[in-house]
Design a protein that fits this description.
510 residues; alpha/beta; 18 strands; elongated; binds adenosine-5'-triphosphate; binds magnesium ion; binds zinc ion
Length: 510
């Protein structure tokens, strides 16, 4: 007898429907699986055979063939165990074939017949809905992920026996329910860290506000203890709330990485701060069984690289391409995958290995040593920071001042306004932030009058700027003007933007 069940494979961050066909015939009692299978899928044979036996199904000695199609996509992972077992049961007549017609099935089997969680449930269920499925069976632990897909009934099951009962209409099973509104309630998401805890540092806070408003990459340079890490940790607290669509996009990535942890959706902006010992693969993604890296886990949020020069040089250099493209393509022998990587890069560093350059009372590093330290950051990477600021050490007096500091909520209000202006200006153009402007769109949206033009020209000559730096100044000036709710980019906006470019001249210039 023959039967067919539906399942799905992951490709990049999308699910692709896979049909699982089982055929039972007379002949030598062997169990064969075909269809361009990765090693974990090949091992499904053993898990399925033993799980079926331990769930009480004695299969007659027949020849079993299972085929996963389409044949041109490679199937990886353990999520095919359950659909394979179900298709075999149907082929042996333990289940009516019609009950498999319009339901998608995924899950890993334990030898005792229990169902274990798998990665990628959200993108699979999401794609299944788009393909017209309205019902799916997933591991109990992943049920909340599937339940956020509107129009899909997601059933969570804990064992093979439960899955069979559900399919044959025995027992009471209700689809998982998640209250999506509740997930986005601000009180439940309240940030624990707030800018009001940071004393002084007015200039740094202002630069961060601009950076967040236009999604500009920012580099902070300064001596130990000047509060760089403290400032960076508070950046998510001034970022705009996530929309449902954004949350869905981020959650798909976390689902594939296996980081959902029984949450239904990721409702907070990501903040990732990998240690400087991180490998290139963990940072950008990839590996044998491809997974998104930190740059994708930081999508629509912040990637914070603390102690930037301490990272392996080749590891941070790979960031250059995703920083431009907002995504990463991982090419492998048999396929290539694309993961989103639209993060805001925040980096912090000391100016030398002791940390106190150019304070000659405290820093004994030779000029050569300082240069070598700074040169761990290449010019092209440095060019990708629109804003570069110095974090200065606070003195005792400044830390003692009891002046009330502005809260993150107050700063966020201004950021929200600047973001709204950008959204309206770029509507329908696939541009969301000023930092995404290309040289062509800069011409259109960052027009300068003669006075502003000549100011920028002087700076260009005096500071010996590159073409890239010139464009970055214009984009930052656009954001500063937006924060000011000014259509026109005025002299003060240009000169402030130039300031954020002059810090790298101070350290890296001749
Ligand atoms: N502006 C400030 N207001 C309040 N506390 C501060 C401020 N600056 C620094 N601190 C205190 O100093 C500690 C050290 O700051 P932080 O770790 O952010 O410094 P850093 O610049 O990252 O130093 P390093 O270069 O050593 O990593 C903070 O945890 C905080 O307690
Ligand atoms: Mg630090
Ligand atoms: Zn030094």
């Amino acid at each position: 007898m023959f039967s067919k069940a539906y399942s799905a494979a992951i490709h990049g961050i999308d699910g692709l429907i896979v049909s699982v066909e089982a055929d039972v015939s007379d002949g030598l009692p062997i169990f064969d699986m075909v269809g361009y299978l990765g090693s974990e899928v090949k091992e499904a044979r053993e898990r399925v055979r033993i799980a079926l036996k331990n769930s009480g199904y004695m299969l007659p000695a027949k020849r079993i063939t299972v085929n996963l199609s389409p044949a041109d996509i490679r199937k990886e992972g353990t999520a095919f165990d359950l659909p394979v077992a179900i298709a075999i049961l149907a082929a042996f007549g333990h289940l009516p074939e019609e009950c498999l017609k319009d339901i998608l099935i995924i899950g890993e089997l334990s030898l005792n017949g229990n169902i274990n969680k798998v990665n990628g449930v959200l993108p699979i269920v999401y794609s299944a809905k788009q393909q017209g499925f309205t019902k799916c069976i997933v591991p109990k632990e992943n049920a909340r992920e599937g339940a956020v897909v509107v129009g899909m009934q997601t059933f969570g099951v804990a064992s093979l026996t439960e899955a069979v009962e559900l399919l044959s209409g025995k027992g009471e099973y209700t689809p998982e329910f998640v209250d999506i509104k509740q997930l986005f309630r601000r009180d439940d998401l309240e940030e624990t860290m707030d800018f009001s805890e940071v004393a002084g540092q007015k200039a740094a806070k202002r630069a961060i506000e601009i950076a967040v408003s236009g999604m500009h990459n920012i580099l902070m340079i300064g001596p130990p203890g000047s509060g760089k890490t403290m400032l960076a940790k508070r950046i998510p607290s001034i970022m705009p709330d996530l929309s449902f669509d954004e949350s869905m996009e981020i959650s798909k990535i976390y689902s594939i990485a296996g980081l959902m942890d029984q949450q239904a959706l990721i409702a907070k902006r990501p903040y990732r701060s990998p240690h400087h010992t991180i490998t290139t693969t963990a940072l950008v993604g990839g590996g044998m069984n491809p997974k998104p890296g930190e740059i994708s886990l930081a999508h629509l949020g912040v990637l914070f690289l603390d102690e930037l020069p301490e990272f392996q040089k080749n590891t941070i250099e790979v960031l250059r391409q995703p920083l431009e493209d907002k995504s990463i393509t991982i090419a492998r022998l048999n396929a290539s995958y694309r993961y989103p990587a639209g993060f805001m890069l925040v980096a912090a560093m000391n100016p030398c290995s002791c940390g106190f350059f150019p304070d000659r009372n405290r820093c004994n590093c030779s000029i050569n040593l300082v240069k070598r330290y700074l040169n761990r950051i290449s010019q092209p990477l440095l060019d990708r920071f629109d804003i570069c600021i110095e974090a200065l050490q606070m003195n005792y007096k400044e830390l003692q001042i009891q002046e009330k500091q502005e809260s993150s909520a107050d700063i966020r209000k201004r950021v929200d306004i600047a973001r709204k202006i950008q959204m309206e200006r770029y509507e329908g153009q696939n541009i969301y932030f000023n930092s995404q402007l290309s040289p062509r769109t800069i011409k259109k949206y960052c027009k300068l009058d003669t006075k502003e033009q000549s100011l920028l020209e002087q700076a260009f000559i005096k500071m010996n700027l590159s073409a890239r730096a010139y464009h970055r100044i214009l984009k930052v000036a656009r954001t500063i003007a937006d924060l000011d709710q000014s259509d026109k980019i005025a002299t003060k906006h240009i000169s402030e933007a130039i300031c954020y470019r002059s810090m790298d001249q101070k350290y890296w210039g001749e």
